[in-house]
Amino acid sequence: MFGFAVDGSAQADLGLEVTVNRNPVRTGKDVQLTVTMKNFTGRMNAPEVPGLQYRYGPSTSRNSSWVNGKSSSELAYTWTYRVTATEDIQVPPMKMSANGKEVRSTGFTLRVAEGRQASGSGGQQAGGQGAALMDDLELVIEVSNRKVVVGEPIVASFKIYNRYNGLDVRSYELPKCDGFWKEEVTGPEPSWEPQVMGGQRYNVANLRTVVLFPQKTGKLVIEGFEMDGYIRTSFFSGQNVSARADAITIEVSPLPAPRPADNLGAFSRLSAEMTIKGEDFLANQAFTVDLTFKGQGNLKFLREPDLAWPSDFEVFDPEVKDALAINQNGETGSRTFSFVVIPRAPGTFELPQFQASYYNVRKGTYEQLSTEPVAIDVVRDATGGGESLSYNSKSDVQVLNQDIRYIITDYKRPIPRERIANRKGILFGGLLLGPLLFGGAWGVRRRREAERRDVVGTRKKKAGSKVRRELKTAKAHLQHPDKFYEAIGTGLEDYLLAKSKSTRATYSRTTILATLNDHAPDLTEAWNELLGDAEMARYAPGAAATPEVFWRRASELIDKTEIAWKS
After folding, report:
1. Using an 8 Å Cβ cutoff, are 276 and 260 in contact?
2. In this structure, how many other beta carbons lie within 10 angstroms of the beta carbon of residue 372?
3. Is the pTM of the predicted complex or chain greater than 0.70?
């Protein structure tokens, strides 16, 4: 410690001043108290103030000046306290001895105010008019809405508000957001951007922005998060700082009743369109039918539509194509189900018309979706094929009737000369083609043998398509709850056994949930609830939801699991 020696004739006045960095303050937050000695130096301990709990300090600063032959100096000590009082705090006058004189400060009242008020449409908007009370270092979770319906997206941003110079963010960990399906918004690395709030300038860093889709009703909590940092107060010294964001509670309501049976969920907007790739439609030749959904919402939750195809059509499982963008507005884009269709007979056919509904969160009403009916004419192919075929499955028909050649029974009829002339060419082609066909057949055989050897791996790969077929089977028993829950319960268990590479002999709820937690942790609780409800419905009829609701829950959860499962 040192002071400035001054001529008696030009000696400046002595003074003691006590200030805080903000007034009012909030309970549970930090406040900085500064004691400034004017024109003298001295040592002092952290002042004891009822309602303030000492945390760390002091940091010091010095200033001196010479004006019109008169010198002056200031020595300031700054301590950081945590506000523990819930009512106004009286900061008493402080006194010190300087050059044989007593120097006193002026006491004042430190007002304790309530927390920051929410602004906007139910969300916590730190930049709004109600956000005047901010600490110099604040962590904030900003959400687009606090009251939503199940499935309605919420945009959540995790931010740092900072008024310090030279803050070095050392570590932070964002919450998992249990009960939500989470999609992260890709963006640049966090950086400080200036922003004025409540008449004060802050440097703001957006750590991350996510789009959250609530998966169940009730009050869901976005847990707070913590940050540790370091503030350099001088060239040689600094201090550690920490801050914590308050948790945010989201109130999730169910979709309003009566809910249509064909409802697809909650979206800001949604449309459906069916298109056909091709102009000439020949029997036994494939073409593609695309059903495309466009809109804003969680389009990844849209599952394969149940379409009533003509009986003479062979339809393969669709390829799903997503063109989605995750941004500050949520999830927008399209999801397309692309069906490969083979008409097995000529005739005029009408493609299935898709009809469904969705809940428009902007209008607060259910809206209908439908595609235009499309009729096509299927004609025989050039080789005369196209007669109706009888088959049991898609794999049963390997050679179509245009490939069939009649066996010559009249062997006495002479063979045309051109056949004799081309016999050498046929022989040569056969010699060339034979090894190729043999190699291809050998490759197919090896692949099938490998699949047979890896029975467990094959079960896992086909688990998704298998359980969807079982769901369709269960859906046929909606009017018979006992048969429905038995079928769907077994199907769900088989699905989880296949995904976890387990057998029914080793099945247990605990083991399955542990495996789920390793591969799809955000869905573990949802699966536990679903399996529990399935058991309740099977053994305590009338205690569970209706089969329609349960089927929809199961179908949606399987879709999420297929997307989220980490192999």
Report:
1. no
2. 9
3. no
